[in-house]
Amino acid sequence: MAGGAPPRLGIPAAALGRLMPMFLWxxxxxxxxxxxxxxxRLCAPQALAGRPLxxxxxxxxxxxxxxxxxxxxxxxxxxxxxxPPHTALRGLAVALAGRQGVLLNLSFGLSLTEAVRxxxxxxxxxxATDLAxxxxxxxxxKNAVMEELGALNRRLQTARRAAEERALTDPLTGLGxxxxxxxxLQRAAGSAAAGGPGFALAHLDLDHFKAVNDSLxxxxxxxxxxxxxxxxxxxxxxxxxxxxxxxDEFVLLLPGLTDPARLxxxxxxxxxxxxxxxxxxxxxxxxxxxxxxxLSPDHxxxxxxLHAADTALYAAKRxxxxxxxxxxA
Amino acid sequence: xxxxxxxxxxxxxxxTYGPAAWAAIARxxxxxxxxxxAMLAYDDALTGALVAAAGRHLGKPRDALLxxxxxxxxxxxxxxxLLRFGGATYADFLHSLEDLPGRGRLAxxxxxxxxxxxxxxxxxxxxxxxxxxxxxxHVCAGxxxxxxxxxxxxxxxxxxxxxxxxxxxxxxxxEPAYAADxxxxxARPAGT
Lengths: 329, 192
Description:
Order of helices and strands of chain B: HHHHHHHEEHEE
Number of helices of chain A: 10
Strand order of the largest sheet of chain A: 2-1-6-5-4-3
Radius of gyration of chain A: 42 Å
Number of strands of chain B: 4
Strand content of chain B: 15-25%
Strand content of chain A: 15-25%
Mean pLDDT of chain B: 93
Distance between the termini of chain B: 28 Å
Helix content of chain B: 40-55%
Shape of chain A: rod-shaped
Low-confidence stretches of chain B: none
Number of helices of chain B: 8
Largest sheet of chain B: 4 strands, antiparallel
Structural class of chain B: alpha+beta
Helix content of chain A: 40-55%
Radius of gyration of chain B: 17 Å
Oligomer: heterodimer
Number of strands of chain A: 13
Mean pLDDT of chain A: 92
Distance between the termini of chain A: 112 Å
């Protein structure tokens, strides 16, 4: 090939506008010679022709400098529309041959979604080769998926909490179950060992319950148990743990309550409440309870504490039932 | 099968025929009443069982049910919007159908939509070949019908049958701008 000037591309502004809807052709003095249709839309109703670049845009990078647009060539530009909504744009400039000035191509970066909304842009405002539509699609799909995942997580969390609660609950009475007692005992013993207040454990066994079941059936027995649960909850505080650990066996864990006088009063009230005849299957059922109580200061080890309460319960039963007894220290 | 598909069928049945019908169909198909999670994956056989149970309970032929499902899906705004991204006009949308499985995977990597191949046969007529999952062709037919309405285009959509895991749909675009376009803006409406 013979030497000579490299081939030059002549392209009408309209054609360039279809290829690059946000192009900007600046004169050597930095005034707009032509602009792509989307850029015209962004700046509407103000026309762009003849205006200086810096009147339309604030140059964020590089910072404001001399008026010669040629200094913009070859580097990544960041601009902002001076007019509201101050849309952010990025750009690339190349110097044109001769004294033709500078050609810039502008695009949205992450500002795409906002810009589309602020200027009501449509597919027609982007070149067919632009990935803008794909990006918007991806963004919307991503948001939908994230929302669904968030909702799923919340449902899973709720289900898990419900399952955990069920695992610690006696299905008939709604009181805690043996597992719940173990956890509460660990917590309370740990707290006491760390210098916190002690607690009391009351092991309660119903008297004459078997007779109710045998003579009136299990449905009546269940009603009695429900009433027992109600009495126990009624006599205990918010922070007390009330648990059903067996057919007619219950345990109370009473944090901060280690005064024998108060505990005796509690036991007396519980027994009185339980001795009130319960109506079941058309017959009044008479039950009572034996209670063994032990204090954590006397038995810091939880297993020993349980055993101590158990032993006290046995003592109460042997002494005639319908009464309470404290574990020996 | 991706949970999204099973959940779509679930919502379609519940919204169209009521929660009681859904509960009965779920029971018959051996599915719990709470149904499916859109973001989890399930055994493929469940989908078939669900559709079969629905057809029996409602006394509807499977093909008609699947087509109604397709129409229902376009009525769900988030999905309608994602489909509308395919093209500014109904013709553009048709030409973008081949990209649909790819777009689906872009949104949800586990989503395995069937292969779609569009062939123009001249005069505004097209053949769409749906390969991969039996029954999807009928869902597609429903989607194509509903999307034509959405764009305001007048088009004839016919399921031409299928064999060997491939279904064919005939499309005749009679009038691209017959009725009002329901509208689609690239920017999501505020509050959505």
